[in-house]
Amino acid sequence: MTDRKITEAASEKPRRGRPRSLGSAFEDMINNNVLGYRNCTRRHVHDEEMAHIAFEALSGANHPGLEWIITRRTVAAQLGRIHVAMGATSMLDAATVVFDEKPKVKDIIIRLRTWRLGKDKVSSDTLHKQLAKALNTYMRQHPHLQWEDALECPRNAARRG
């Protein structure tokens, strides 16, 4: 018989996945169906709570886009996250921009998420990389085009813009 130790390596590993953003008391309420959610994931409940925060703030401010935003729960959830992370004023500003422009929901979600997380800072280096990528793709698709002509196009576009 060997003297091998039994280890519980699995319990020593860090948890995988998205870190929990709800408190344990709130998760207990979800698990015990106190809030009225049945067979829902924690993420769904969290989205619903964030949307509720946004609805309360928008209705309290008599925001003109409230009815439009109510029909888009994912947008409301992102606005609720902005309210929690950055405050009511930032959320109202974001809701006004979203309501005025009314882009596709997918574009709204991307824009609000990057703004909330602080990833929307664009530099000239980022623009340079995007232009180079677009130009290289176009040149692969149109090999007959000369590089001198291709390089003149962004300059002409900048003059016209």
Kindly describe this structure.
There is one protein chain. Helices cover 68% and strands 0% of the residues. Helix 5 packs parallel to helix 7.
Q: Portion of residues in helices?
A: 55-70%
Portion in beta strands: under 5%
Q: How many distinct helices?
A: 9
From the alpha carbons, calculate the radius of gyration and give it in angstroms: 24 Å
- Extract low-pLDDT stretches: none
SSE string, helices as H and strands as E: HHHHHHHHH
Question: By helix and strand content, what is the structural category?
Answer: mainly alpha
Largest sheet: none
Q: How far apart are the termini?
A: 81 Å
State the total count of DSSP E strands: 0
Mean pLDDT value = 77
Inertia-based shape:
flat
Number of domains: 2
Which short descriptors sum up this protein?
161 residues, mainly alpha, 2 domains, 9 helices, flat
Task: Break the fold down into its secondary structure elements and pairings.
Layout (H helix, E strand, L loop, with lengths): L8 H4 L11 H8 L10 H19 L5 H5 L2 H14 L1 H14 L3 H13 L6 H18 L5 H14 L1
Helix pairs in contact: 3-5, 5-6, 5-7
Summarize, please.
By secondary structure, this protein is mainly alpha-helical. It contains nine helices and no strands.
